[in-house]
TrEMBL record, chains A, B:
<dbReference type="Pfam" id="PF00588">
    <property type="entry name" value="SpoU_methylase"/>
</dbReference>
<dbReference type="InterPro" id="IPR013123">
    <property type="entry name" value="SpoU_subst-bd"/>
</dbReference>
<dbReference type="GO" id="GO:0032259">
    <property type="term" value="P:methylation"/>
</dbReference>
<dbReference type="InterPro" id="IPR001537">
    <property type="entry name" value="SpoU_MeTrfase"/>
</dbReference>
<dbReference type="GO" id="GO:0005737">
    <property type="term" value="C:cytoplasm"/>
</dbReference>
<keyword id="KW-0808">Transferase</keyword>
<comment type="similarity">
    <text>Belongs to the class IV-like SAM-binding methyltransferase superfamily. RNA methyltransferase TrmH family.</text>
</comment>
<dbReference type="GO" id="GO:0008173">
    <property type="term" value="F:RNA methyltransferase activity"/>
</dbReference>
<keyword id="KW-0489">Methyltransferase</keyword>
<dbReference type="GO" id="GO:0006396">
    <property type="term" value="P:RNA processing"/>
</dbReference>
<dbReference type="InterPro" id="IPR029026">
    <property type="entry name" value="tRNA_m1G_MTases_N"/>
</dbReference>
<protein>
    <submittedName>
        <fullName>RNA methyltransferase</fullName>
    </submittedName>
</protein>
<dbReference type="GO" id="GO:0003723">
    <property type="term" value="F:RNA binding"/>
</dbReference>
<dbReference type="InterPro" id="IPR029064">
    <property type="entry name" value="Ribosomal_eL30-like_sf"/>
</dbReference>
<dbReference type="InterPro" id="IPR029028">
    <property type="entry name" value="Alpha/beta_knot_MTases"/>
</dbReference>
<dbReference type="InterPro" id="IPR051259">
    <property type="entry name" value="rRNA_Methyltransferase"/>
</dbReference>
<feature type="domain" description="RNA 2-O ribose methyltransferase substrate binding">
    <location>
        <begin position="38"/>
        <end position="109"/>
    </location>
</feature>
Amino acid sequence: MAELFQIAGAGDPRLRDYTDLRDVSLRKLLETERGLYIAEGEKVVRRAVEAGHRPRSLLLAPRWMESLADVLEATDAPCYVLDEKTIEQVTGFHVHRGALAAMERPEPLSPETVLASARRVLVAEDLVDHTNIGAVMRNVAALGFDAVLLSPRCADPLYRRSVKVAMGAVFSLPYARIEDWYAAPDLLREHGFTSYAMSLAADSVPLDAIEIAPGERVAVIVGSEGPGLTEHWQQAADHRVTIPMAAGIDSLNVAASTAIACWHFRPR
Amino acid sequence: MAELFQIAGAGDPRLRDYTDLRDVSLRKLLETERGLYIAEGEKVVRRAVEAGHRPRSLLLAPRWMESLADVLEATDAPCYVLDEKTIEQVTGFHVHRGALAAMERPEPLSPETVLASARRVLVAEDLVDHTNIGAVMRNVAALGFDAVLLSPRCADPLYRRSVKVAMGAVFSLPYARIEDWYAAPDLLREHGFTSYAMSLAADSVPLDAIEIAPGERVAVIVGSEGPGLTEHWQQAADHRVTIPMAAGIDSLNVAASTAIACWHFRPR
């Protein structure tokens, strides 16, 4: 059972995990140093706990005590209770859901672990935007993909904004960072995956022309928002695939093209 | 040729179309009253003009004069030139692209006009979020749909945020609002469209089981972000369709499900 603490003011040092949530660069540093991430909103907090992640502490406005009673019951972490106005002073933004938890970051998985049991993998190169990472992971999870691999420069899936956009899909979907990005095509090949690089190149195969063999293990590779996939991946992938588009439209954004690709390559 | 005006300060009354761009409710009122909308960024300004929309005025930082020379050449609207810092004072936010135009809103189209020549229509019910409207219209346009119909409560596709997310697709894609939303199913039927309502209902047909007859005119109906499609539409549509999803995931967001549906129903 969580121990409850009524907190008097925003300056209480026990709230230090929750300060300045709007400051992206400060939070990046702080969350990595302290090995934590922030779950925001009743639903997301519950999902994080259900996924087996451990709360370091919770910060709740009084009205959330009841609906999160089961979560509080199941943890030994301290729960700080504070009115919503003061919570906003601490975090620096309007916490419209009034329920926060500082969660311990789970141990990172290795790409090998993630690939071992997967049949469908989404590989993301340099998606630096937290909203896009969150949206991509939500789509990938919804469409039955098993795992996500990230290039070193991809944004953090456990950053508050990513978690929020992903609706918590980042907790249940296994993912790993590939440190040696240059060797990634070989890594996939060694694990028995056929790689499909999403591309705008003129000689790409239209998505609807691609048929998957029964039992085939599929890796879909998507590039960054601006320049798209690097030349290295374009050349190294087994296939280059494009989503045929109407004239005059630049491209779909990465969340939309991922959704369409994952739909086409979904496990059946 | 646009007449150039060097503007001295943020208080100049000629800049009134550009004030307080961050204030959503004020801007809504103001843009409707004055019959204008704001195009932001070199690319979007050019697309708006190429789509035949008329600038009332432009507001540019000096460095954009050259790259927009063709646009300035082709218009009689005044062009106000101002340093980027003062532009930010006027608009109230960081205009990272330093090029704005106040455009005359085009005359609204009627649903009948829009439907007359379309084969693929996306119908949106109560998408109140500007980002979602923009993302949906970008996806719809990219996948070769011909038009969009909006319920009365849908967000404004010409609001700055929608335009930006849509990458200008709102200029070239015909759209109309349906005033009598209750009669919308009949309207589509009268125009020879088969309607497919995207739904989470258990008895919906999986999307991949749907085959379209040659020459069929297709209307895809998507519901609002929270509650999904209203019961009225669920009952009135010719078919209820669902995107099969992995266990434990609530749903795809509306931009992703629209992308997948439009991909499935794309004209071939």
